[in-house]
Amino acid sequence: MTADETATANVSPVSGRVHIFFDDAEIASSANALQVVEAGREPQYFVPLDHVHPGILEASDTRRTEPGKGEAHFYTIKTLTADGPDEAWYFPYADGAYADIRDLITFGGERVKVTVSDV
Known about the structure:
By secondary structure, the chain is mostly beta strands.
């Protein structure tokens, strides 16, 4: 990671409870979430895997490398109403400015919505 990437990475605890919704159904909720703020990008919320409702994530073979974070490993979200291929991922080898998100999971896609409420 370059000095510029480190300077623009901001990983911090979220004040409140993060709720993750997929296809309008809550799939995760955590008072121990972290937020990643990077220049030019929407904030990303990361939650512990055990705060995701059980049985809705199916491991994917998809991998992608992101600067600073390392290799992302993806999951498909599977609910009774819809599937979200590769709409959940984590960084098992994140280090440096991103070390705190190692093994936490984040979500993205058109049907994913994130809200933060007071605890």
